[in-house]
Amino acid sequence: MDVPGFQFKLERVRAVRERAEQLAQQDLAEAISRRSDTESDLQAAEALLEQAHELQRGGAAATDSVDPSELLARQAYVERIEAQRANHARELETRESEVATRDAQLTQAASEREMLERLRERRRSEHQQEVARREQGALDEVAATNFERSRA
Fold first, then answer.
1. Distance between CA 128 and CA 115 in Å, rounded?
2. Alpha-carbon distance 33 to 30, whole Å?
3. Summary count for the chain: helices (H), strands (E)
4. Which CATH architecture has domain 11-121?
5. What are the residue boundaries of the structural domains of the chain, listed by start?
6. Which stretches in the chain have pLDDT values below 70?
């Protein structure tokens, strides 16, 4: 309910804080999206690593004689996939940390905005009380004037 004549002096600050909260929400959403993408990449790397291990075990069991250069190539492939998986795991840790940081920033921004919202509502209530007090004073004055007139 809008009170006539009420203006919150810190409205611009509140609007800036509200915008900061919205930006923090967007940053958090983007960080969560990046974390999700990294999780997908890690799962894909783990699946590829499992396939490489299966290929290495299956290739060794399928033939009795294996060319040493082929064994070295398979081992190098497995090591490369393991390195990719390790990189994805480290990146996921970084993304998790980023999400936690963004979440803390959003919490702080929301807290600052909510504090100003509470202050605005308190000021609005004080203004309503003051308006009601003045209106009651004016009504009392009219009643007193009417009473004086009726006595005369």
1. 20
2. 5
3. 2, 0
4. Orthogonal Bundle (1.10)
5. 11-121
6. 1-4, 59-64, 66
